[in-house]
Amino acid sequence: MNKNTLIKFIKLSRPMFLIAGIGVYFLGTGIANYLGYQMDWGVFVLGLLWALFAQLAALYLNEYFDEPVDRNNENRTIFSGGSGVLGDDEGKISRKVALSGFVVATSLAGGITLSLLWLGAFNLGTGLLMVLIYGGGLVYSLPPIQLARAGYGEFFAGIIGGYLVPMLSFNLQTGEAHRLVAMSSLPIVLFSVVFMLAASFPDYATDLKYGKRTFLVRAGWEYVVFLHNSLILLGFLVLALLLYLNFPRAILYPAFLAFPLGLMQIWQMRQIVAGAKPSWKAFTWNAAALVGSVIYIFTYFFWTR
After folding, report:
1. How far apart are CA 160 and CA 183, in angstroms?
2. Diameter over CA atoms, the chain
3. What is the pLDDT at residue 2?
4. 156-213 tens-digit pLDDT
5. Are 240 and 251 in contact (CB under 8 A)?
6. Which CATH number fits the domain that encloses residue 218?
7. Distances in Å between the alpha carbon of 73 and those of 173, 180, 224, 242?
8. I need a surface site. Which of 27, 136, 273, 286 has the fewest CB within 10 A?
9. How many domains does the chain have?
10. Could you give the 3-state DSSP secondary structure of residue 176?
11. Statement: the pTM of the whole predicted model exceeds 0.85
């Protein structure tokens, strides 16, 4: 594998999405640490690797099935329109590479699952969460269900990344669930859906033309604009309501530092609706920063308090 091919393979692996996956995994373990559980670092590493390989399997599968549409996308950003590295043209890598990557990632995730079983770090909840996470990645991209083209993928992905992954990492350390994980995850799920909706806008024309029925295509841009802005406000309303649910205030208050990013996201959307030339790069980066900052703030303070 030469240098250019390696760079393309890294792009195919969508490293920015992997960083988000690492963040939410650290969040769940951070909550366990905050609650005083003894950390099993071997299980922590194995669980993190499992989550990454499960995510990679889903990403490779999505790249494989979306390539016929994504190749025609002229508004690709780092977060939308696919990696852009697959195809039959010169300088591209074969779609079969994505399929091979899926098989390898799945095999590695399976091997790690057996290791966790051998270590005794596996219970019914762990197994259920793993099935939901990995199975969710499959049905997101794999025909005939293919949630990414059924109009539900954005919400499904938000729940998997924002809730199930931190719940898994917490469960691996504690063997149980906890309300702090659910409460921390709710605003993250909402902001994750905001990000997924925002990332679908640069692809709208291409998806509409080639029949990829994302939620934006199915529901129409007017409704999705309303939903996008409403979910941002709802996310911060949920943060405010957590004040009354005995959520640790020293951890919650810093999360409101993300509020200007929420306002900026709404403002950018209003500018686009008003007819301004969109900067899809700035628009999607701001949406990523919104959810990413909340993940980072929660994770940092759960680990350090």
Report:
1. 15
2. 58
3. 64
4. 999 999 999 999 999 999 999 999 999 999 999 999 999 999 999 999 888 888 878 8
5. no
6. 1.10.600
7. 42, 41, 20, 41
8. 273
9. 1
10. coil
11. yes
